[in-house]
Amino acid sequence: MEPLAVQIEKAVVQLYGDPSNSDVTAAEKWLISIQESKEVWSVAWQLLERDRVEVQNFGALLLKNKLLKSWNEVPEDQYESLRFQIFQSIMKFSENGQPKMVLTQLCVAMVRYVFHSMPTVWPNAIVSVVHTLSSSQAQANLSGLLELLKVLPEEFEASSDNAFAGKRAIIRSEINKSQSTVFGFIEQILLSNSSLNIRLSALKCLTSWSGFAPLLPELRSLVSLLFQLLHDQQLVNDSIEVLTSLITNEDCYKYPTAVKEFQLLLNSKSDFIQTLLNDTDRDNDLCSMMCVLVTETSVTCVKSLTADINQETTENCEESLETLTLLLRFTTLPGHYPTDEKCSEITFCFWERFLGEIESEEVSKQEFLLEFYEGILVSLVEIFPIKARYPSEEEWVESWSEDEQDEFMRYRDELWDLGESIQLTMHYQFVHHLSLTLSNLFSGQSPPLWQDVEAILFLLQVSAGSITEDTSVFFQSTLSLFPRMPSNNTLAKSALRLLGELAEWFRDSPDVLLAVLPMILDNLSKPTLTASAALAFRDICGDCHGVLANSDISSIVISCQLSLIPVFHQTSVPS
């Protein structure tokens, strides 16, 4: 009978051979069942010596799985020799030209060995691993060590429902004790003359570990170094990813001083960010990553951006303004979303949160914050009609894909949501700006583009349900321009939706309602606008039945009857 290692090798080759071979299923079942055998502990090492990558990988897989499920099969007097064998294999497969997937499997195996050994069998196991694999400073050893450190947090996250579930607290405690060693080791690599691949691996490892570590004071020099690496074109993406992971750690609030230092370091990159955004060949993916970092930092600092700003001290004022100015640059990026830019939408979550914080303050503090941040908030309001604007009809039809059109429509919905947050704290300023912009469009020598007008009518719907005595005049001004509106179906639909949203206001402004009612009734009979007109008319009937009862009922009935004629013709059965 053939040795078990030979049988397994043949089965693996068969498994990864011709998928149409009927023996593949049988080989797969046998390979799964054989993993229960104690004999595979020794067979795994034999498979790792084979030439075929798939066979080597299966050997590492066997070892990894046995360490998860069958630790009790390892005699105590063999713990150290098993550890040595895994170390040796990691060093071997860390060398250039060796398959990365085998190295990863072996690193997972070592992590599982480490977890089993904590804390009594192998005290300070993680620190020992770092010292063992980094002692020679060989690039190959560093590669293996960084891969091992990268998969360790991933294995911990997966441990909630496997053999380590019962000792997660112990493992986490050991991980916490090793953090200073791990982060210090990674910082040394980033400061060294190591190869680009090694430094990239160090950053990926750091991203993996950042979930364990909020902005601890001990990380001050490492965080500063990461901000310096933003200027390295080869490392900037990974550096941003690490910084974002650090600032989004749920425990950051425990370290306000470290968060403030992080904010100041980010503010110091204002020129770098401006250069990035102004680049004619702008890297949109990099811009989006940077936007996420600025947004998440602002979200983490959101309470200090409001609670720490007061009339008594200006200690945090400049820093807060600088942070919001940075964020505003991404919100106001020129061009249409999503074809020209993809950053503005990322920032919306912060602005909603920020405005909510302002609204939650007492009235006197609200007024102070609105005055203090007036320049920022006015700029935010001013960008709304620009960002909500449709592209030209030619672009929309010929250049935009269906997915891009759908993204834009979702983006407008998010603009609406943000508009609701703004108008709660800045209702007057919001409506005033939209009304003034609309008036300016019609004051020029040439007629306005329908896209510009439609964007404003779309946004005015946000405030239509909360009109005050101060803003009522702006809506009257808007409605007075309706007869001069450009002819366009999309614009007409937005106008009709606005009229429907104004139903409650019309109840107290009957003269205005009677002036615009003919427009609604006329559009009931236009096939492309019937639905929009009917919805607007329904809303008005619900809120303004008293006004309508005193109007010319016969003209209303006739308009409704005329609108039903096309429907009657479509549904009637020929005699």
TrEMBL record:
User: InterPro entries of this UniProt entry?
Assistant: ARM-like (IPR011989), ARM-type_fold (IPR016024), Exportin-1/Importin-b-like (IPR013598), Importin-beta_N (IPR001494), Importin_beta-like_NTR (IPR051345), TPR_TNPO3_IPO13_3rd (IPR057942)
Which Gene3D superfamilies does the entry link to? Answer: Leucine-rich Repeat Variant
A single GO cellular-component term on record: nucleus
Give this protein's Gene Ontology molecular function annotations: small GTPase binding
Q: Which UniProt keywords apply?
A: Nucleus, Protein transport, Transport
The Importin N-terminal domain covers: 27-92
Q: Where in the cell is it found?
A: Nucleus
Q: Which Pfam families match?
A: IBN_N (PF03810), TPR_TNPO3_IPO13_3rd (PF24140), Xpo1 (PF08389)
Listed GO biological process terms: protein import into nucleus
To which protein family does this belong?
Answer: Belongs to the importin beta family.
Quote the PANTHER family the UniProt record gives: IMPORTIN-13, TRANSPORTIN 3 AND IMPORTIN 13
Question: What is the name of the protein in this document?
Answer: Importin N-terminal domain-containing protein
Which source organism?
Amphimedon queenslandica
Question: What lineage is on file?
Answer: Eukaryota, Metazoa, Porifera, Demospongiae, Heteroscleromorpha
